[in-house]
Amino acid sequence: MADKISVGVLGATGMVGQRYIKLLENHPFFKVTYVAASPRSAGQVYKDVVASKWLIGEDIPADVANLVIQDANDAKAAIGKCKFVFSALELPKKEDIKNLEEAYAAEGIPVVSNASANRWTEDVPMLVPEINHAHLDVIADQKKHHGWDKGFIAVKPNCSLQTYMMPIHALIQAGYEVKKMVVTTLQATSGAGYPGVPSFDMIDNIVPFIGGEEEKTEKECLKILGTVKDGKIENAALPVVSSTCTRVPVIDGHTACVSLEFGDKKPSMEEIKKIWAAYKSVPQELNLPSSPEQPIVYREEENRPQPRRDRETGKGMACVVGRLRPCNVFDIKFVALSHNTKRGAAMGGILNAELLKVKGFFDNL
After folding, report:
1. What is the reported pLDDT for 175?
2. Does residue 349 contact residue 115 with C-beta atoms inside 8 Å?
3. Is 339 among the catalytic positions?
4. 97 within 8 A of 103, measured Cβ to Cβ
């Protein structure tokens, strides 16, 4: 414990909060010492509150089970009990989440967030560590802007983007401009939280609408591919994205069917596969605990990837790609898959925190 950083989890009783607590069990860098949730749960023992709705499939970690839940609305209560917090907050109004995360940062407690409230704050990095680790540079400007000494906010993007952003970034990094993208997502029910979509609506059914998801899909990729300039993140101009987001009767694992149009320079199918196979970045170079050894895994079988067979690839942190082929409308098309409650949620947030830790952002807490 002496060598580990004490951390808190906000929204600890929800699905993503539970996943954080399980994934942080025996983590080499971090130890959960603080849990917070809604006022109705505050003052109760964690195991008593979540006993009937623990969804992870293994026992509640013993060192968290007997922690007393605090009121997540009281940022001052976390002072001295943890060095930084993971935010899995769920509130009706995004502005309330934004204000609350800023309240923790103002108290000198960094926030590593899964929530969407600060994704479009121009001085908050929205991290996929393999892609935009350089966006950490904006944190110094964020702290200066708010007058924060030790606190700051970093967020992760929408879970569905993790499904295809690394394959696209690999191609862009190799010198191939991606001008247009059409994507259809087939998103797992766990992405809706718990209890989420009623089973009677999902069994033998597909729901062709997820509120706000298409807007996130079409915009967030541009911030991820953007650059830090004048103390803020300037969005990329391309690709232009058109998306359709659907909910399908799968528990875990978001799938995406993607079509791309390149600029003047177009790679061959074999070259694309070589680019994906060679793709590695800072998390792999630093050997971060939650990083997959191979971020992009290509499957040659004609019927892969599949959620049940492929979502756990690379500890649930890899992007699994298949069915690369020519597109009659654009240039290429492929199918991609990622684990939405690991790479797309808690484990993605933990990877962000690991990067922040190794880069020294927690040194003076």
Report:
1. 98
2. no
3. no
4. no
H or E stretch covering 49: helix 46-50
**Is the four-CA dihedral 247, 226, 93, 88 of positive or negative sign?**
positive
Q: Which of 159, 221, 245, 319 is catalytic?
A: 159
Cα separation, 135 vs 175, whole angstroms: 20
Both tokens of residue 246? 């659907």
Locus of tokens 């790679």: 267
Q: Active site includes 159?
A: yes
| Residue 145 DSSP label | H
Contact in structure between 96 and 102 (CB atoms under 8 Å):
no
Cα 280 to the center of its chain, rounded Å: 18
The pTM assigned to this predicted structure is 0.96
Is residue 218 a contact partner of residue 239, using CB atoms and an 8 Å limit? no
Give the range among 106-115, 135-144, 188-197, 339-348 with minimum mean pLDDT.
Answer: 188-197
The angle at the Cα of 182, spanning 175 to 309, to the nearest 5 degrees, equals 90
Number of neighbours of residue 246 by Cβ within 10 angstroms: 15
- Structure letter (DSSP) for residue 293: S
Least confident residue range of 1-5, 81-85, 276-280:
1-5
E-strand ranges in the chain read 5-10, 30-37, 70-71, 84-87, 111-113, 153-155, 178-187, 227-229, 232-234, 240-247, 254-262, 296-299, 319-326, 332-338
Quick check: 152 and 135 in contact, CB under 8 A?
no
Question: How far apart, in whole angstroms, are the C-alpha atoms of residue 313 and residue 318?
Answer: 6
Contacts of residue 128, Cβ cutoff 8 Å, sequence gap at least 6: 156, 157, 161, 162, 165, 166, 169, 224, 348
Task: Give start and end residues of each alpha helix (H) in 191-345.
Answer: 199-202, 213-224, 269-278, 282-285, 307-310, 313-316
Catalytic residue among 133, 169, 254, 339: 254
The span from the CA of 127 to the CA of 135, in Å, is: 7
**Whole-angstrom distance, CA of residue 4 vs CA of residue 152:** 20
Residue 83 DSSP symbol: S
